[in-house]
Amino acid sequence: MGRWILHVDMDAFYAAVEQLDHPELRGKPVIVAGLGPRGVVATASYEARAFGVHSAMPTAQARRLCPHGVFLPPRFERYEEMAEKVRAILRSYSPLMEPISLDEAFVDLTGTELLHGPPERVAQEIHERIPKETGLSCSVGLGPNKLMAKLASDAAKPGGLRIVRPEEVLDFLAPLPVEDLWGVGPKTAARLREKGIHTVAELREVSLSLLQSWFGRKGGEVLWRLSRGLDDDPVVPTRPAKSLSHETTYPEDLFDPQEIEAEVRRLSLLVVDRVQAQGLLAQTVQIKVRFSDFTTVTRQTHLPEPTDHPLLIAEEAVGLLARVSIPEGQGVRLLGVGVAELSPARFRALPLFADDRLGQTIGEIRKKYGPQALDLAGSGQN
Q1: Which candidate in 18, 47, 98, 104 is catalytic?
Q2: How far apart are CA 199 and CA 192, in angstroms?
Q3: pLDDT per residue over 359-372, tens digit each?
Q4: Helices and strands (H and E) in the chain: how many
Q5: Would residue 205 show up in a list of annotated catalytic residues for this protein?
Q6: pTM strictly above 0.85
Q7: Is the pLDDT of residue 356 over 70?
Q8: Once rounded to an integer, what is the mean pLDDT over residues 115-140?
């Protein structure tokens, strides 16, 4: 029995979650984005995309294209919650489930037929279960490898299901632009176009030796294999995060030291929210500070024990801030707080200088009532 890989892509995920939570927004152009003058679009609903709005576009440009759109700040804790519901559905079919982002995942269905039936039927079942159990639309692709599963789900957008069987791979790939293949970025695509190659079918006509003369031994071989739909990349069920961070670019530079410290504490709590939501502990705390002239400095410290305690992480971040010298006349344009050296929270050492119960209580309050329900006062605050 050959390989069967499934790819699930949640449609306009952040915007769809907002429309799910706020039914009055259904059918309206919803744009999840940074709302300041330097913000960018995270996700746009399909209604907004009709006006040319897309992810990574500056928010200011999106407002010009879609002035009547509903612009909302992202709520990553809520998106993570919904993403985990989708992952739970996928794990029920195979332990080999690899999240790529909050809204995408691969599932290896190879050898699961005795438990769940033919992969084609499983794909149809997953495509029906996710909207039924989460209220969110998804696009599903099924193919003999990760490359083909991803291309199949792209072809199924929005909200569809596409199955590409092994014998259909070459015909499916033939009309696609070369840019659709993994690893073919703008520069590679431009070089191929210079040589009269625009589609995968045209790329497949080029010999391996010629491709290697253009792109090097390894690069040429990769293009040769991709043009034939060959991909041996395995589905990796666990890909631990190396770090988690949260940063903000401010519409106006910050000059007040107390305000800057308060922002570092606020960002620290947002990071801890994500650490706790993923059941992790962190042993390194990091901060990033960008000044008015775009000069950026970073600082980090290694903790004695891994922790998810909000007070400890916030105090370490504030301590790192004290090690940053702000140049005279410069304001702070961006602040970021991050954690690294992450490990599963199977065992939590009791902190020596902070009440562990207090840390748990802070997390529970913020989880139940939202990040705005509780913040940390600093030494210079009332």
Answers
A1: 104
A2: 9
A3: 455 455 445 555 55
A4: 14, 13
A5: no
A6: no
A7: no
A8: 97
